[in-house]
Amino acid sequence: MTVRTRLGTWLVLLLCAAMAAVVAPQAFALIMGGEGNSPLNDPGWPKGAAVIFNTKSRIAYWEGPPLGGGQWHAECRGDAKAISAVLADFAKLDVKSKRVVVHDGVGQSFWLNLNKEAGKRGDAAKMDWSFMVWQPASWEQLRKLPADLNPIDPADAKNGPPSQIDVYTGGNIKWADVTVPKELKIGDQRLEAHGFKVADGIVLEGKVTDLATKKPVVAKMRLQRVDPQKGGYEYPNAAEAATDKEGRWVLKNAPAGWHRVVIEAIGYVPRVAGYVRLDDQPQWQTHDCGLARAAVVSGLIKDDSGKPLAGVDVRFGDVTTESGGRYQSPNDYKFKTGADGRFRAEVPVGKAAIWLHLPGYIRPGLGEQITTPKENIELSMMKSARIVVTVDFTGKERPSEYIVSMTPEGGEKIGSYGGSGNINAKNQMTFESVPPGKYMVHGRPNPGSDKQQTEPIAIDPKSGQAIEVRLVPK
Q1: Residues 103/108/110/116 CA torsion (nearest 10 deg)
Q2: What is the tens place of the pLDDT at every residue in 182-195?
Q3: Global pTM?
Q4: Which has the closest alpha carbon to 113: 33, 9, 29?
Q5: How far apart are CA 212 and CA 407, in angstroms?
């Protein structure tokens, strides 16, 4: 059976194009998946993928990423004979980039244990290999997204959408008994292949280089635990490691859990090299990282009358380096204007978009695109509108959840404002920092059908205006 599951909340500005510029409502991102090995219809996979995906060894499957979809995962259980047959078919798959990665330990199904609950880690969620394949059309569409939303590895741009099989050798598969077609290249991530022992536990290592010169950088790696909190995350340090003169670092017996790998060096912008979810099984991972020198960006933020605006949150998004890769900072590139409306920031040399936020004000459209370094930028903001939507359930039973949506007149497009979210205990949904313009507002139960959706109400908020809207459910 195929189902869809809520995996978290997303701040929504249409197509997530400007989510840092507004205080936006919440909506749930959905990922599709299911259990078992009933054959799935080919949704547009490369030639040869269907026979691999629909193997009788499949115990579960799912499609991601949450924004856009098109990346399919088959989670499987079987022995050396079963995976040998799959690898024979994989060698014939019509994609340029095919990867086989071998791991220590027992694999854990994502779909059969969505919340990574320790109590569910057992026979029910064990897997021996997984198969990943893209729908090429989806891959092409996603790689055109801004850097902060783009799940595509820039290294794959040349050869197109990759496909990968991950094999876990701690369960039913003895790797020495597996037959591997000679045309397949193996990426061996087992400890012994990298000079480590099982007693070393979880081993993380990497090399730090200067993105511009490609020379090694003396740096520090901080392994920070990802702790979900109400309204965000905290990142306490869990372990550290220093590089040698060649920029190499190693951390043995790393703690299990959800972490991010942060690289810091004097004179460079710190960078998140990756995120890891580690169980307590011995394993090896590498996190090579390139660092960029800091570039100064400064400017003045004013209102539409030319008056400087103090306390404006200035955030840099879609930050990429000259080499083209996304550069995520552990500090999120957040800055604030002073009493004179001015700000000064340090970001990597490269490109970025500037997003502005101040309660009661808005800068419509996409973020200001800049090349760094850049000084004395002048940007303006206008007073925003506020929309309060109340759902009147008089004489009707209130559903446990009811969602209100607002869409721009003429349809959704990148750079326009819109969003949706569940009403609160007062049966209200409030849209803050709304750009002036024409919109349609409607509501429906969540979950619900199109037949249960209210008739759309047209609104035309002006700069600085507050509007109240009343919806009557069907």
Answers
A1: -120
A2: 999 999 999 999 99
A3: 0.80
A4: 33
A5: 43
